[in-house]
């Protein structure tokens, strides 16, 4: 056994102070990844700083150009938000596909992005929409935020406060789920932005985590319909391979999910 001191700060400033004063602290958001990791003795923080009660990290704001969601907002709140469903239906859909009801009611946007699991859902929306991740120190563009498996641009003690998602002209999210874990074996978030540009982000398939499918984006830029992807193939060399699916299998799924996502633009 090991000793962990639990803290429940009332403000972000207090949370930051507690972190800086501890020898090996971890922030707790929804706990859907950290707590199981601690139970398996893969993490043993001296201090656990609970961010789940901070009002500063919660809430949804919709403007003409963006949907901004607090980092402490749960997946269930995003999934059932009428405002999100009107502005970016694909984002509400994605949130509703995260895990199971228990995970959706406890897990948070900020926790998911801070962990950056290679099969998580939200990274696809952040990269697929070119979102901005705001923290206690700065604002980070999506292209700079994700830096590999379980790796982000976050610095020690930096806390995600909110994420701003640009509102696209149309978008959809298609996910091929593992039947037990509900994680993405391969999932695609495809968007046509208001300026006409195409963004396609893939999660669950890449060996380095979430990535943009440039070949698919190029094909859709010329012809934004599912048929434009008939001759497009993804190189298996950059794909994950495990007991759930080979690299070639996942590479094929990228194109299949992309076709479905583009088909969903009309829905």
TrEMBL record:
Cited PANTHER family: XANTHINE DEHYDROGENASE SUBUNIT C-RELATED
A GO MF term: anaerobic carbon-monoxide dehydrogenase activity
EC number(s) on file: 1.2.7.4
UniProt KW Oxidoreductase keyword: yes
Keywords assigned: FAD, Flavoprotein, Oxidoreductase
Superkingdom as given in the UniProt entry: Bacteria
Every FAD-binding PCMH-type domain range: 1-170
Protein name, UniProt field: Carbon-monoxide dehydrogenase medium subunit
Organism annotation: Prosthecomicrobium pneumaticum
Enzyme class: oxidoreductase
InterPro entries according to UniProt: CO_DH_flav_C, CO_DH_flav_C_dom_sf, Diverse_Substr_Oxidored, FAD-bd_PCMH, FAD-bd_PCMH-like_sf, FAD-bd_PCMH_sub1, FAD-bd_PCMH_sub2, Mopterin_DH_FAD-bd
